[in-house]
Write a structure and sequence with these properties.
Blueprint lengths: L1 E2 H8 L2 E3 L5 E2 L1 E2 L9 E4 L16 E4 L10 E3 L3 H13 L13 E2 L4 E2 L4 E2 L4 E2 L4 E2 L4 E2 L4 E2 L4 E2 L4 E2 L4 E2 L4 E2 L4 E2 L4 E4 L4 E4 L2 E4 L5 E4 L4 E2 L4 E3 L5 E4 L4 E2 L4 E2 L4 E2 L4 E2 L4 E2 L4 E2 L4 E2 L4 E2 L4 E2 L3 E3 L4 E2 L10 E4 L4 E2 H11 L2 H24 L1
Parallel strand pairs: 4-5, 5-6, 6-7, 8-11, 9-12, 10-13, 11-14, 12-15, 13-16, 14-17, 15-18, 16-19, 17-20, 18-23, 19-24, 20-25, 23-26, 24-27, 25-28, 26-29, 27-30, 28-31, 29-32, 30-33, 31-34, 32-35, 33-36, 34-37, 36-38
Antiparallel strand pairs: 1-3, 2-7, 21-22, 38-39
Length: 346
């Protein structure tokens, strides 16, 4: 439980109403009740504020609700996230090395590490203080993992890879799988050894069943604060800039460089050996095939190959009309041929 005043101090907001009101949970606007706080981040739900049973409401400045307890802040959605973390996402318990886990004698474990049954930690691996490995996590030899990381069940970090602090791997994420490299040998292919590593910087999160390929030489790098959704594929030697987000089934081919604060929609992609600048947004199913210059202001691309989003919207409105347009063009061609024939006869 926390008072509304305490929560306001947590998120840098102001209280309107009873600052001593006690809050124990965050709840949806439709079902919130006594002791619960809800939030309004989208104006289309404004009409529901009069009927919600919440004890308090997180709102943006300018919302006037007399006789309701309000927590007013500039970014209600961010405040919701911080309050939810405070009230309902307590730190993981420290349980130490549990029976059924196999940790190599040469591995180094920091203080307050938790390693669950079924985990394997290889030779010379290093696990930072406060890190938790859930059941079935496999850490290959010479891996370095920073402080306060969370590796969920079944995730794998292969040899030599490095994870910074507060990295989260969702279930079955694979860090350091072999890059897709093969040299043609006549009708066959010769596997190119992938001897590089993957580096995940601080505060990176990798979604369930996502794969980050190790570099052929050097490193594949996911920079600080970037978040990758489930089923994302990152090829070898890719560099992803800081605070970039990628939705499910996005993919980046080898040796491409992605700038900072980019956004990749679901099933979007970038081909290999190109550069995508800062603040570029690729809409869902968009595919970048050439270099894209970034800038201080966001730019949005759509389609395949990706073009300016507004241009793509205009083009897409013509798709359904193409069959009729073809008929009309053929009719025009016939008319032109008839006119030419008449001119020649005359």
């Amino acid at each position: 439980m926390a008072t509304l005043l305490q929560l306001a101090e947590l998120v840098g907001g102001q209280v309107e109403g009873d600052a001593s009101c006690e809050i124990g949970r965050v709840a949806p606007i439709d079902s919130a009740g006594e002791g619960e706080i809800t939030f309004l981040a989208n104006p289309k739900y404004l009409s529901k504020l009069g009927t919600t049973g919440a004890a308090a409401i997180i709102v943006a400045p300018g919302i006037d609700l007399p006789e309701r307890n309000l927590l007013v802040c500039a970014n209600p959605y961010l405040a919701f996230a911080k309050i939810l973390t405070c009230l309902q996402a307590p730190p993981l318990p420290v349980r130490g090395l549990l029976p059924g886990a196999h940790v190599a004698d040469s591995a180094r474990l920091g203080e307050n590490v938790t390693i669950h049954p079924g985990c394997v930690v290889g030779e010379n691996a290093s696990i930072g203080a406060g890190t938790t490995l859930f059941p079935g996590v496999v850490i290959y030899a010479d891996v370095e993992i920073g402080k306060e990381c969370i590796l969920h069940a079944g995730s794998v970090v292969r040899e030599g890879c490095r994870l910074g602090d507060r990295v989260i791997l969702q279930p079955s994420a694979v860090i350091g799988s072999d890059g897709f490299g093969f040299a043609p040998d006549g009708a066959r292919y010769y596997k190119i050894p992938q001897v590089g590593i993957v580096v995940l910087e601080d505060d990176v999160e990798i979604g369930a069943c996502s794969c980050i390929d190790r570099a052929a030489l050097g490193e594949t790098r996911i920079s600080r604060g970037s978040k990758l959704d489930n089923l994302v594929q990152i090829g070898h030697n890719v560099v992803v800039g800081e605070d970039t987000v990628m939705a499910g089934q996005a993919g980046v081919a080898g040796s491409t460089r992605i700038g900072r604060h980019c956004t990749f929609g679901g099933q979007s992609a970038a081909t290999g050996h190109i550069e995508v600048g800062d603040n570029v947004i690729i809409a869902g199913r968009g595919a970048v095939t050439n270099n894209v210059a970034g800038g201080d202001r966001p730019q949005m691309l759509s389609g395949f190959p990706a073009i300016n989003h507004k241009d793509w919207l205009k083009a897409s409105t013509s798709f359904a009309k193409i069959p009729q347009m073809r008929k009309e063009i053929k009719n025009l061609q016939r008319q032109i041929e008839q006119l030419q024939s008449m001119i020649e006869e005359s």
